[in-house]
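Could you help me review a protein record that somebody else here produced? Here is the record exactly as it was handed to me:
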Amino acid sequence: MNLLDKIVINNQSILNELFGSLTSINETDRSLYSKPELVAGNASIGGHVRHILDFYFALFSGLPGNEIDYDKRERDPVIESELTVAGEKIRVICEQLEQLKGSQEQKISVSVTTDATIAIMEGKSTLLRELQFVHSHTTHHMAIISIILRVNHITPATNFGKAPSTVAYEQKQACAQ
């Protein structure tokens, strides 16, 4: 299996982990999905999910022309409030990821604002690197979602929101003891 196929599978896996954890919230806690949470800067779990998915959609929107602009995101408020809509969007993204298997590496121009005083920053990247980026970005936001869940007395899976390198490090440390 080539690296591109592996990162595709890793992205599908993390998205499925995200959705699985969210759907495991019981019915009485479903309102938590769209509830603003002070510990997260008044963002909701749904807001973080929408933000994660926006980056995947920006990636897929830009691939045909080899120009990704992460600033041109949909920001669909329905994803923030409706878990079933988020689930459908995750399914669509996983299907789009599946279509990338067997693809050749491609060079991509990437635009993103990192400084509000500069209109746009453009750089060169590759499909592999951008798939690594959206995976890391997803992990980061899952860590915040994990905090929101925990302060609301819901315990996610042990490694939910942990970077794979952190999980590997912790496993190595546990074996050494």
Remarks:
- Residues 97 and 125 are 18 Å apart (CA to CA).
- The chain has a mean pLDDT of 92.
